[in-house]
Amino acid sequence: MGLIKAAAGAIGGMFADQWLETIQPGEMDDKTVFVRGVKTRNDKRSSNTKATDQTISNGSIIQVYDNQCMILTDGGKIVDFTTEPGAFKVDNSSSPSLFAGQFGDVLKDTFERFKFGGTPSGSQRVYYINLQEIKGIKFGTKSPISYFDNFYNAELFLRTFGSYSIKITDPLLFYGQAIPKNADRVTIEDINEQYLAEFLSALQSAINRFSMEGVRVSHVPSKSMELSKYMAEVLDDDWKKLRGMEVLSVGIQSVSYDEESQKLINVRNQGAMLSDPTIREGYVQGSIARGMEAAGSNAAGAMTGFAGIGMGMNSAGGFMSAASQSNTAQMQAQANAMQQQAQAQQANNANAWTCSCGEKNTGKFCGKCGSPKPQNETWTCSCGATNTGKFCSECGSPKPQVGPWTCSCGATNTGKFCSECGKPRQ
């Protein structure tokens, strides 16, 4: 029992008159992974009006669409399949044709494990497996996941939820291992309970990997691409090799922390803010302002409130003054450091030069090709103007000659007059 691919031109022609039945996939949406084929009989031309759903008549046509794998079974065993779209004629006298399409020898090897080795048993069925990406599979952690964050130097506990997608990579293996027996239609929700538990276990391993790599916990939602890769690695043996499917993508929509972890994060963030002397000084001044505001609304009278402030200032004034002086000193130190950094940057910019190879440098030699820094060609005229050409742009005087020169008397000189005869440089 096998399949013969029907010519496209024959589907609507005379060959169609010989078809006893046409089989097409049942209702298949984006969450459906498996569905049984539905028969439509050519009652006007065929005497096969008493056929049952358990029999595929010899000569029937099976329609296959894009991103589908059609499986022809006999007695529960696979007798033929195709992943190529088109119309296929059932021929009980032929051997399996195995139209593997893009899957090549992978499906042919799987077929050897699930094939039916006898004659037609009288119980044939057609099934379709969805080869599209199955998207929007929801997940969420019921209990917090531990995550050691190096930035906070603490063991945090987080919850996360989002969605992931899968793709069936070996439909024959998926049919044999993941589809319940005698099922006519299966959605991903029908079989997701076991896989979701395995997915969450793999999610724990993948998130722990981020922790080992030093990723801050708040950056985990932005690591969807890496997370998909880690999940595929963790689930590869159980899902791809044993069930013929793989995780294609993972999207984390939210990461939240338990109450104790949130407290630790808040304390750490407040400490980091108060390490800035500018923020500390603002906090000190704000405390004084809030105290004065409270004193003005004192139920016993503003004078009583301000008297209380005076007493408090006498006892705590030394601390407030010392804290403010410390903040001011640190702010001045930071300002000095920023000024020095800006001056150093300006000096580097002033000394910067671009080599002929295109590399930008600040030293005497190019860091890329080793060429020396070009000498400064500017010169200052006696009138005070700075020039780069051979003549002064202000008064027109020629550029002074530099370097050694030879006098008419034969002496070599470097100054403006000959050291032997006293003649001026010509």
Intertermini distance: 111 Å
| Content-based structural category | alpha+beta
Radius of gyration: 42 Å
- Please summarize the sheet with the most strands: 9 strands, mixed
Average pLDDT, to the nearest integer?
74
Shape: elongated
Number of strands: 19
| Residue windows where pLDDT falls under 50 for at least 5 positions | 8-18, 43-51, 116-120
Structural description of this entry:
With 426 residues, the chain is α+β, with helices and mostly antiparallel strands. The protein has helices at residues 105-114, 171-177, 192-212, 224-243, 259-274, 277-296, 302-351, and strands at 2-5, 21-25, 32-41, 61-64, 68-74, 77-82, 86-91, 124-130, 134-140, 145-149, 154-168, 185-187, 245-257, 353-354, 360-361, 379-380, 386-387, 405-406, 412-413. The longest helix is centred in the last third of the chain and has 50 residues, at 302-351.
